[in-house]
Amino acid sequence: MPPPAVILSQPQIGENIGAAARAMKNFGLTDLRLVAPRCRWPNERALALASGAGDILAAARVYPDIAAALADIRLVLATTARARDVVREILTPEAAATRLREAESSGVASALLFGGERAGLTNDELSLAEAVITIPTAEFSSLNLGQAVLLIGHEWLKAADTTPASRTRKTIAVPATRQELIDLFEHLERELDAGGFFFPAAKKETMVRNIRAMILRSGLNDQQVRTIRGMIVALVKNKYRGEKA
User: 83 pLDDT exceeds 80?
Assistant: First the structure.
């Protein structure tokens, strides 16, 4: 099944439609439906705010009423900030995304219903939804239309996302050759010796072995070896400059 349709009922501001389309593009939602838009359509300001989501706007369908927009939909979840006035199941965005993913896997066409900027969805519109979604907020519950689409779209994508919680960016690097490492060892040990680091002298061999083991464990690549050697050169130059001053 395609992802849930995003239905905007009587949107008033072209910029908000564009922002909603951009949020849809971010999170893999493609089916935009407009119900009796109050602004002129097509809308240049919507296209300007879409920023790369012009294809979604170009494919958007316009309907005269909610019933027509929902004709092929089997599961409808409506957004509202006034959940206390609604006698039906109330979902968080996360729970709603799970419900929508379950519908997708079962081949059930679904839709997310958003109200206009001024007053949101009417009670009659809400009555067409199986459940409502409320986005948790602090003291101020009113959200911009584009923001609401973005937040729920994010939960939709996250519900099936396999991105690890933590990862390190992998770079293409060539492991340092043994000769490069030996040159690094000798360079570092020479400067440490000149700076009086190996004290007492009787422990120098043990200290050298420990330093080399520590460097080897780090698995340096060729660029990292060159960087460390450059750091050593810079430190030594600054030391001599300070002594001359």
Answer: no
